[in-house]
Structure formats: C-alpha cells, structure tokens
C-alpha cells in the first residue's frame, strides 16, 4: 500500500466550508488538511461566473503551491459554477465538488414520489446543477429550489444564532415551504449547516440533508482508488488560510478544532 502524506486542499468563499472540513476531519482523522477561506471576497453566490472562475483558479494555484494531493471544493457555488473549468484547466490534480456526491447517494434512500427542495445561493440555484443531476437519477422525484441570497452575509457576520436570522429564514422560506411541502431539504450551501437548528425548529416536518457527509465519504473513496491515503498512524496537521482574518472565521475554527493544534495565517490573493 502506498502512503501519501501530502495534504488535502479544501476551500470555500469563506467560513462555510469549515462545516465540510469538520466532516472530512471526523472521517479521515489522519489526513493533513490545508483550508483556504476567501473571507475578503465573500459572498461568491451573487457574483458572475467569470469572477468565480477567476477567484477559484487563484485559490487552486495557492493550494497547488502547497503541494496538495487532491482539492475538495467545500462550496456549492464554486462546484456549480467552476468545477468543469477547474478540471479542464488543471487536469493533473483531482477535484471533488460537493454537489455530485450527495446527489449520487439519493437513490439509496429517497422514495419515488417525494419532493426535494434545494436552497442555495443565487448562482447555485440559477445554474440548476442540483435539479439536472437529481432528475437524471430520479426522474419521478419533484425538485423545487429557492435562492436565499442574504444567508451567507449574515452567517459571515456571525449572526447565525441571532433572531434576525429567523426573520430571514421565514422571509425566504415560509411561502416556498407552504407551497411545495417538501419531504427533504438539501442545504445547498456549506454555510447553511450553521443554521440547521433554526431551519429544523421552524419547519420540523422536513428532513434536512447536508451534502458534507457524502462529500467526505467520496473523498475517502477517491483517496483509496488513487492510492493516496496518508499514514494511518499519523496525527494530522491542520493549516488554515484566509484572505481576511475576521473574528467570526477565527471563532468558527476554534469551535471545530476544540483543543487541537492548528495554524492560521492571513494571505492576500492578487488578481
Ligand atoms: N459556502 C458557499 C456555498 O456553498 C457560499 C457562498 C457564497 O460565498 O455566496 O455556496
């Protein structure tokens, strides 16, 4: 068996991808990880595809300079907008988006005539990436979607537990949920697991799905199939980089890392 201790690169527009990192870390505790959060330029979800392509390529270059073995995109917006371009432009590095793994897992447990709702950023929802991928696998399932543009900004501001968050959830989702009565709700933005408890308490009948779990499993499969697993005995190292060291970003890392060691650095990405 080959051993490859190079790190896994993980990135997001900001702190949302830390919810994915938490799952990767839990499933693969011996894998070194480098995380990049583009906190200075978040949110990506209302920007043009060209801009998202440009930002995600800069981050890819940054991670490649740190010798990552694969890149996990912990961002639905980048997965929807730029995954194909990244794969085309950097054919030597394996990329894993966050949308495909959860969609691939759905046929295992979704009933044929159910309704799946997807919420995400404007770019993710407009791209219809979830809808198209789900329909390919589950043609009888009804897929409905709703963009929630302000969620990311509030969460990056550290307001995910504040009452103003409930007001925004109700603003975007009350009518949508009442109209479509979905059985499942996919949290199609890696920031949203941070408000899962609020969505759950406002709409208790709906089953929430967090794509981070399937992405972590898919990363493990990919590492095994490419023979890139790290030493099973080693204790992993975690390096975090951000284009702006916001208080919320620091706090979120502390919440995920608890007492574990990590390094955190500011880095500027030039256009
Ligand atoms: N966490 C990103 C996602 O999963 C967020 C987007 C943003 O920056 O708007 O879509």
Task: Describe the model.
The protein has about 270 residues and is α/β, with parallel strands linked by helices. The chain folds into two domains: about 10-95 and about 215-265, Rossmann fold, CATH 3.40.50; about 100-210, Rossmann fold, CATH 3.40.50. About 45% of the residues lie in helices and about 15% in strands. It is built from eleven helices and ten strands. It has helices at about 20-25, 50-65, 75-90, 100-105, 120-125, 130-135, 150-155, 165-180, 195-200, 210-225, 245-255; strands at about 10, 35, 70-75, 95, 115-120, 140-145, 185-190, 205-210, 240, 265. The strands form two sheets. The protein has a six-stranded parallel β-sheet with strand order 4-3-1-2-9-10, sandwiched between helices. Helix 11 links the parallel strand 9 (about 240) and strand 10 (about 265). The protein is globular and about 50 Å long. The N and C termini lie far apart (about 40 Å).
Structure summarized in a few sentences:
This protein is α/β, with parallel strands linked by helices. Helix content is 44%, strand content 17%.
Please give the radius of gyration in angstroms.
18 Å
Query: What is the helix/strand order?
Result: EHEHEHEHEHHEHHEHEHEHE
Count the domains.
2
CATH architecture annotation of the largest domain: 3-Layer(aba) Sandwich
Stretches with pLDDT under 50, minimum 5 residues:
none
Counting DSSP H or I runs of 4 or more residues, the number of helices is 11
CATH fold annotation of the largest domain: Rossmann fold
Query: What class would the helix/strand composition place it in?
Result: alpha/beta
């Amino acid at each position: 068996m080959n051993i490859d201790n190079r790190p896994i690169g993980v990135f997001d527009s900001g702190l949302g991808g830390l919810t994915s990192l938490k799952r990767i870390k839990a499933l693969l505790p011996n894998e070194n990880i480098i995380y990049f959060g583009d906190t200075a330029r978040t949110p990506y979800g209302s920007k043009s595809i060209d801009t998202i392509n440009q930002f995600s390529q800069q981050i890819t270059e940054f991670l490649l300079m740190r010798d990552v073995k694969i890149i996990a995109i912990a961002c639905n917006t980048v997965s929807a907008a730029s995954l194909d371009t990244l794969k085309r432009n950097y054919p030597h590095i394996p990329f894993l988006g966050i949308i495909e793994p959860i969609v691939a897992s759905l046929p295992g447990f979704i009933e044929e005539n159910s309704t799946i709702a997807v919420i995400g950023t404007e770019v993710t929802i407009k791209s219809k990436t979830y809808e198209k991928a789900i329909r390919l696998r589950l043609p009888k399932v009804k897929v409905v979607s709703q963009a929630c543009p302000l969620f990311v900004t509030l969460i990056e501001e550290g307001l995910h537990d504040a009452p103003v968050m409930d007001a925004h959830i109700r603003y975007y989702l009350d009518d949508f949920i009442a109209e479509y009565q979905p059985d499942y709700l996919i949290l199609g933005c890696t920031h949203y697991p941070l408000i899962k408890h609020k969505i759950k308490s406002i709409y208790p009948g709906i089953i929430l799905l967090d794509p981070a779990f399937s992405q972590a499993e898919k990363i493990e499969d990919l590492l095994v199939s490419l023979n890139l697993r790290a030493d099973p005995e080693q204790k992993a190292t975690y390096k975090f980089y951000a284009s702006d060291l916001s208080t919320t970003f620091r706090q979120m890392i502390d919440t995920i890392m608890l007492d574990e060691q990590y390094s955190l650095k500011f880095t500027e990405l030039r256009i």
